[in-house]
Amino acid sequence: MDLITEIYRRLYEAYGPQSWWPAETWFEVVVGAVLTQNTAWKNVERAIENLKRAGLLEPRKLYETNDEFVEMLIKPAGFWKLKARRLKNLLQKLAEHDFDFYRLRESLTRDELLSVAGIGPETADSILLYAFEQPVFVVDNYTRRIFTRVGVLNGKENYSQIQSMFQRAVKDIETMKEYHALLVEHAKKVCKKREPRCDSCALKDLCQTWNKVRSETAV
DNA sequence: GTCCAGTTAC
DNA sequence: GTAACCGGAC
User: Does residue A211 reach within 7 angstroms of strand B, measured from its CB?
Assistant: First the structure.
């Protein structure tokens, strides 16, 4: 069994099903994917709640709202001026498909998303996978951190190289959704940037970083 | 590498 | 105080 599959099994065993993305509608996934760029999810939740209360978590409504009002509502998520612009850019693209879920799911391509200013590979793939059920693996900073520490990556691979590696091992959409969610959970709870909790890590026996520390502190 | 630029964790 | 946060553009 390959390492990628084994790590999935370990994480699933440790954390259980995550049932991602945490959102009620496809459009909430889209908005959340933009707002969470380099931002703690807790702050994104506040921004989404503000949009929801204002009745703007609906594509046409948000598209027609002036930027200043949107900026005010999404402030808790940070980068507010930038992200209001990015949401508008993205909405303009969705408008080309009449904001229609089924039409978008049929015809919205990755290249189209990447052509939108402010939508990079991770945001595009999050939208494709979690909003429109397309089989793409989402690579984020957490994925890089965990697999670099374990020793599968050397830290110099680019996005598409890492994505290819996962997509060779994982084929079905549900596992792709679950795997990324489990990596996020693991990175937040255990494989943290500062003071990782290696002692309680489900991957420690597979992890180069952990084994290095162990061999150096052994008597 | 730097900017963006709010909120929490440490 | 400052590092970190489900990045992307320049």
Answer: no
Q: Is the CB of A68 under 7 A from strand B?
A: no
Q: Which nucleotide C1' is nearest A84 CA? A: B4
Chain A span 49-108 residues with beta carbon within 7 Å of strand C: 78-79, 82
Q: In this structure, is the dihedral angle defined by the CA atoms of residues A84, A55, A52 and A122, taken in order, positive or negative? A: negative
- Average pLDDT by consecutive 10-residue portion of chain A (219 residues)? 94 95 95 97 96 96 96 97 97 97 97 98 98 97 96 94 97 97 97 94 93 68
Q: Which nucleotide is nearest to A86 (CA to C1')?
A: C8
pLDDT in tens, A97-127: 999 999 999 999 999 999 999 999 999 999 9
> Which positions on chain B have an atom < 7 Å from some protein CB?
4-8, 10
Q: What is the DSSP string of A138-158?
A: ---HHHHHHHHHHTS--S---
Domain with CATH 1.10.1670.10 in chain A: 3-18+138-217
From the candidate CATH numbers 1.10.260.40, 1.10.340.30, 3.40.50.12370, 3.40.50.300, the one assigned to the domain spanning A26-131: 1.10.340.30
Domain A3-18+138-217 grouped into CATH 1.10.1670.10: yes
